[in-house]
């Protein structure tokens, strides 16, 4: 037997000329395959068949393969499950002994002929028995979606597909492949005008199914494509506000904000929010878009929004939705702008405390426990404590002031007149203020506690009826009545 490498390769090629290699498996026709696993070496206590003579080439044993006119071939070095190429085409590779999908796309050319990469990929799926039935069906579905993709871009079919539950899932799946050509074509399509004369991207953003396609598209775009989309949805302020006020549209805008939070392109969005700031902040759905910026953008990117909030803070404080949104601004605003905002609100504490909505903002300022602004509020309210104690919202403010180190200013206002003290104690809201005053002065051991008792005890009979009964019970039993 020749032992040269060239002769060995030539003879090996001749010995397997009747083999049909299909994806790493060998199929034999009308032959008996000899498996070396059935042989036992002498070391295992057995012996080789008499007709088999061990021959070695480069240290490897060779055995007859029992093909006609064949030479000796080496035994397999690896299990049959991993025979074959380590790469079966674009998007597929071996991992262990199972064939799995990679992250590459299935196709690069949408107009490929019948014997294209698509068909080869589909053949690989059908021929590989290692894949589970679910995986085969799932991957075949992806292949079919890619094949049908050019048809989806024709006429109004694309819009209808985006707004349909199953169609949106199909497009979502295509975008998740992260194929640049697919993403590019969808991006171009959504920037086209719809039959209604507005860009298709607005139809997607305002629809419950379409917004999911839009969200996946945003994740797939490069910087230049993001700029085109952002420019389109922000160039018309009225259309932008329509998006902001719609629940699906606002969620779509929030997606854009998160995608652009590290990009200079975010200024497209924040400039529009500032241009209609009061209108947006007094709308519940729209105000949460501003909050998205405040929560996720850098302070420098929120600078214009902070300035807009400072400029119209008093108007916002007196609006129901605006006051709620303004409190969210107080929670997030930073630096010198935070000081300016809180200073304006504190200076206007007298009239905001008596406003049905503004009182909540003043309560927020006091609850921050910033001595500078808390003292300013407590000082400015001197002379008004009796009045605001008789109001639902104002009474809460007075109670919060009684928890500060400037509580003596409030109590002395009540002690200025016995009739005033009794009037507050018998009021629907004021009785809770007097209870609070008795409680905090007693706990602190303040002499003001005994002054309050000395003024109230001679009039316990008057306090036994109506809302004054709450103060009466506290003085006689020592148990305060909880405010509802």
Automatic annotation (TrEMBL):
SUPFAM superfamilies tied to this protein: ARM repeat
Task: Identify the stretches annotated as Pumilio repeats.
Answer: 343-379, 413-454
GO MF annotations in UniProt: mRNA binding
- According to the entry, what is the taxonomic lineage of the organism? Eukaryota, Viridiplantae, Streptophyta, Embryophyta, Tracheophyta
InterPro entries found in the cross-reference section: ARM-like (IPR011989), ARM-type_fold (IPR016024), PUM-HD (IPR033133), Pumilio_RNA-bd_rpt (IPR001313)
What name has this protein been given in UniProt? PUM-HD domain-containing protein
Pfam families, per database record: PUF
- GO cellular component terms, semicolon-separated: cytoplasm
Q: Which domain of life is it from?
A: Eukaryota
One Gene Ontology BP term is:
regulation of translation
Signal sequence: where?
none
The chain positions of domain PUM-HD read: 126-479
The UniProt keywords, alphabetically, are: Repeat, RNA-binding, Translation regulation
Is Signal one of the keywords UniProt gives this record?
no
Question: Is this entry keyworded Glycoprotein?
Answer: no
């Amino acid at each position: 037997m020749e032992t040269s490498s060239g002769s060995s390769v030539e003879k090996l090629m001749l010995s397997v000329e009747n083999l049909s290699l299909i994806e790493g498996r060998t199929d034999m026709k009308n032959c008996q395959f000899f498996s070396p696993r059935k042989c036992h070496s002498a070391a295992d206590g057995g012996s080789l068949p008499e007709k088999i003579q061990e021959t070695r080439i480069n240290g490897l044993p060779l055995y007859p393969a029992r093909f006609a006119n064949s030479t000796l071939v080496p035994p397999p070095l690896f299990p049959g499950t991993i025979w074959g190429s380590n790469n079966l085409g674009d998007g597929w590779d071996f991992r262990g002994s199972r064939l799995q999908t990679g992250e590459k796309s299935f196709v690069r050319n949408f107009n490929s002929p019948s014997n294209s990469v698509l068909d080869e990929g589909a053949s690989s799926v059908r021929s590989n028995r290692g894949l589970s039935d679910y995986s085969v069906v799932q991957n075949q579905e992806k292949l079919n979606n890619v094949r049908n993709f050019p048809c989806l871009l024709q006429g109004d079919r694309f819009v209808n597909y985006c707004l349909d539950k199953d169609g949106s899932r199909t497009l979502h799946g295509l975008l998740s492949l992260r194929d640049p050509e697919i993403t590019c074509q969808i991006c171009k399509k959504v920037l086209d005008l719809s039959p209604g004369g507005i860009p298709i991207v607005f139809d997607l953003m305002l629809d419950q199914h379409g917004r999911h396609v839009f969200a996946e598209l945003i994740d797939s775009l490069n910087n230049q494509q993001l700029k085109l989309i952002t420019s389109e949805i922000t160039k018309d302020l009225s259309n932008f506000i329509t998006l902001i006020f719609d629940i699906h549209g606002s969620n779509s805008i929030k997606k854009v904000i998160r995608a652009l939070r590290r990009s200079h392109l975010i200024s497209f969005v924040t400039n529009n929010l500032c241009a209609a700031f009061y209108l947006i902040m007094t709308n519940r759905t729209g105000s949460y878009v501003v909050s998205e910026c405040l929560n996720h953008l850098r302070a420098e990117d929120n600078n214009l929004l902070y300035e807009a909030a400072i400029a119209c803070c008093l108007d916002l404080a007196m609006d129901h939705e605006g006051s709620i949104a303004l409190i969210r601004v107080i929670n997030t605003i930073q630096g010198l702008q935070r000081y300016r905002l809180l200073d304006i609100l504190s200076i206007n504490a007298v009239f905001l405390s008596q406003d049905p909505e503004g009182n909540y903002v003043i309560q927020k300022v006091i609850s921050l426990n910033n001595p500078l602004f808390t003292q300013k509020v407590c000082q400015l309210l001197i002379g008004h404590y009796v009045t605001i104690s008789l109001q639902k919202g104002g009474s809460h403010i007075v109670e919060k002031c009684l928890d500060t180190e400037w509580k003596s200013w409030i109590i002395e206002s009540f002690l200025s007149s016995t009739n005033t003290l009794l009037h507050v104690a018998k009021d629907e809201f004021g009785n809770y203020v007097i209870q609070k005053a008795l409680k905090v002065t007693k706990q602190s051991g303040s002499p003001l506690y005994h002054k309050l008792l000395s003024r109230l005890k001679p009039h316990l009979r008057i306090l036994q009826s109506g809302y004054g009964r709450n103060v009466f019970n506290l003085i006689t039993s020592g148990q305060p009545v909880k405010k509802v």
